[in-house]
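Example for tutorial group B:
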């Protein structure tokens, strides 16, 4: 549980960097994202999930 909370905390830090460093670029990215269809957004979400799971498996194998 502690690892999950640490991962969540790190995700929040990483997600907060862009709006803090470059708010105008972040706003444009959100504007672009809002114009995508639901299917395109779902595909991006699925891609991120698969990429994360793949990275997780690779790291699990590397650190055994």
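The residue assignment follows.
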């Amino acid at each position: 549980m502690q690892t999950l909370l640490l991962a969540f905390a790190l995700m929040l830090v990483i997600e907060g960097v862009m709006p803090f460093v470059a708010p105008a670029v972040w706003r444009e990215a959100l504007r672009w994202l809002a114009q995508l269809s639901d299917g395109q957004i779902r595909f991006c979400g699925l891609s991120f999930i698969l990429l994360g799971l793949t990275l997780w498996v690779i790291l699990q194998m590397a650190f055994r």
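The chain has three helices and no strands. Compare this with the pattern of hydrophobic and polar residues in the output above.
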